[in-house]
Write a structure and sequence with these properties.
elongated, Topoisomerase, domain 3, 750 residues, 18 helices, Gyrase A, domain 2, 31% helix, alpha+beta, 4-stranded mixed β-sheet, 4-stranded antiparallel β-sheet
Length: 750
Amino acid sequence: MVKTAPPPSGGLPIESIDLRSALEERYLAYALSTITQRALPDARDGLKPVHRRLLYAMRLLRLDPGQAFKKSARVVGDVIGKYHPHGDQSVYDALVRLAQDFAQRWTLVEGQGNFGNVDGDNAAAMRYTEARLTEVARLLLDGLDEGTVDFRETYDGSEEEPIVLPAAFPNLLANGAQGIAVGMATSIPPHNAAELLDAATHLIDNPKAGTDDILQFVPGPDFPTGGVVVEPKHMIAEAYRTGRGGFRVRGKWHQEDTGRGTWVIVVTEIPWLVPKSRLIEQLANMVLEKKVPILADVRDESADDIRIVLEPRARTVDPAVLMESLFKLTDLETRIGLNMNVLVKGRVPQVLGLAEALREWLDHRRDVLIRRSQFRFEAIEKRLEILGGLLVAFLNIDEVIKIIRTYDEPKAELIRRFEITEVQAEAILNIRLRALAKLEEIAIRKEDETLRAEKAEIEKLLGSEARQWTRVKKEIAEVRKTFGPDTALGRRRSAFAETTDIPFVDFTEAFIEREPITVVVSEKGWIRGLKGHVDDLSNLAFKQDDQLKTAFRTETTAKILVMATNGKVFTLDASKLPGGRGHGEPIRIQIDLEDGADIATVWPYTSGRKRLVATTDGRGFVVPEDDLLASTKKGRNVLNVDGPDEARISVPVDGDHVAVIGENRKLLIFPLSQIPEMGRGKGVRLQKYKDSGISDVITFAMSAGLSWVDSSGRTFNLEQKELRDWMGNRADSGRLPPKGFPRTNRFTPY
């Protein structure tokens, strides 16, 4: 409700508005602007507004392929002055990326000067570099003056800009896109253009074809830096089907003989978006810190091509084992995400599968064809109208000349005498004397005949959807000639391979003696490792006002996972834990824990196992433990936590049902399948609370029943038929637990 207060000292009235409503309205406007005007590409031309404006501005500057270069500063100035009122550096960064052949599979800008390199070095300032459009950009812009797309006013109303480009090239999938909006993001890797065009042709011939059919033409991404995709085929298919997933990409290497039985490994291709300088630094650290003892030296012998030389410690080293270790420990293997979140029809954010994304482009190409044909049809009609008037003039040339010489208003008299239109009369009046030759009349008749034949063909095209798709198919075939797999430009760069069965060798663990230990964690976050597996912990000593939080058995070669209240998960080496003679040491010493955050829970890592993680407000999800391992002290962000809520629970997934109990002492049981599996996020609501939060969670097999242990060590178990009263769905409130459930509201003592 808006209230108006009296104006202060004769000024304008003050309106009182609800702060919550005002913030919601403004934040929504900001979110929509970010989604549609910055972060997400259009499914039709695969461009964000800044990229589209860059190409359009360069076209108006006549920076076509083969023309002279112009300063990048001139391009950026036109873009921010006419179309894109943002910072010049951000616009220049977008221009630079369009010109980097190691970032773009098909560059849209041809740069002259220093536009950065694969090492990760930045481009020179915009006053030093020059740019012009490439042939791919020309294809995206082709037909812009033929009524193929709509235009809108620029931000100040002084100019016009295209809403979308005609896009004769499948840019969305060919070049991919990366962007982070508000509440959503997009990540599309680049693909091979010839494969996409073949798939598009197949879609035209088989409109009902799905993603599985398309995969016979598009086996996977094609990165500008090459590399080897080692993602299993069924995972690639699932990712393309749903529009979400990822691809594991490795560097390409081979063994090179150096004589006398010695050899080196040469890496010739690295994963996409990995700066070579950072990769060399990682490999050098492997040597200096002896994390891979069988690696003796690293040399960067790159020139125009990448050549990273890895020298083994001895000639007896297995090269496959060495590379498997480096794939695990460095960016020689990375995971490229797939999240095909795009703007459908330029308006609605939607995650598309591979077939749907190609269909959006094909539908756009058909719309462009129809609009271009209608534009040409109207132009022909106007020209035929003029030609008709000219023919009238040639057939009655003497009378026309007489009228022009005699009448003060010859146009009106021509219209009345010959029953022609005003346009035809104007054309007659504009005839030059040299055009009165007989040959000119023949040329007009020939042009009239040609245009009428073209008009008839356009009428047939506009009246037949089949003809339209045939024409689109023909246009695609023309584009494919330029980007065919047998051309230097279109040849596939990324290969595919199956992962090897060679296990990763953790050399850090290889030199640690494997012994049983018992890890003890106190409430205040102190940790220690007791030798052997200790059953009785009652005699353990703690610091003043501290007590036991949790304890578990493991081995010195194991990894320990620590979840903090801020949602981060850290990794500790069990071999580096302090001994059990004292009180141990704070976990904070071994990790970079933010101020204000505390230790939520600690447990031993088990490969292949999954965990159910949850926050105090009762939101959670399932996450593989393999995705929780962190290689640095900074840990890994897992749970997105909004204050004052905290990450609290991490329990192993073992069974098919979930039991959750809140601080309000309400118990709820529901199927585990209702909880999504994620690598990171906020999760879904597990149980509904009014003024309280979650207390504990456990997963169990319904066939075995639900069990819990009270503070006295007694075990209780309820079978399936006894649990009916507490069965429900995720996000229900639940009801009071059965008799005998601990007052601590926990399923286990710790």
